[in-house]
Amino acid sequence: MAQDVLHHQNSNKHSRIDQETKTLYYKPTHQQRSSSKCFVFLLAAFVFLCAALLVFASIVRIRNPQVKLTSATLTQIHYSSTTSSSFNATLLAHLTITNPNYGGFSYDNSEVSVVYGGGVRFGDIARLGKDTVKARESKGINVSMKVRSPNNVTLLAGNHSGAFNLTSYAKFNGTVRLLKIIKKRNNIEVACLINLNFTSHQVQAIHC
């Protein structure tokens, strides 16, 4: 009987020791798991914050709008291939403005002109009114302007083929506005070479 009691006491003592050992063993393991979860959470939050900052920086970064001469047509053509060649016509041009920003591009005081040779202006300057290109959109603009020989017609003397290379210049002065608090002044220009043939009444090619 005494041996049974002693055996029972020893069993209880070993059981308590085993329980305390397990408690001591699992306690730091649980803390390590909590620390690992906290680290993963902080890492995920940091990655998310960096991604959000990159997206925000991409949105608020202001890029220059692009303008391109997409087509040109001649109408009302009057051409003379005498010794002093001369011509006048109406040039119908179609421009496209592309706004890559997340804010609107508003322009004013803009113009389109045509020059020949070393910079001699042909005809009138087309003035464009105020307008706005919405964010991340493109807008087409139709321009009609008179193109005619300058007073110094010797520039065209001896040209009986009716083929000329003219250069069109388009200039837009405007402002890009973001979030109603950020704005930047943008002046964009484009020059395009127009290959015209006044005898066939055709625009042969456009190079921008």
From TrEMBL:
Q: Which PANTHER family match?
A: LATE EMBRYOGENESIS ABUNDANT (LEA) HYDROXYPROLINE-RICH GLYCOPROTEIN FAMILY
Q: Where is the Late embryogenesis abundant protein LEA-2 subgroup domain?
A: 94-190
Q: Where in the cell is it found?
A: Membrane
**Which stretches are transmembrane?**
39-60
Does the UniProt entry include the keyword Repeat?
A: no
Annotated keywords: Membrane, Transmembrane, Transmembrane helix
InterPro entries in the record: LEA_2, NDR1-like
Q: Please report the name of this protein according to its UniProt entry.
A: Late embryogenesis abundant protein LEA-2 subgroup domain-containing protein
Q: How does it sit in the membrane?
A: Single-pass membrane protein
Q: Which Pfam families does the record match to this protein? A: LEA_2
Origin: domain of life: Eukaryota
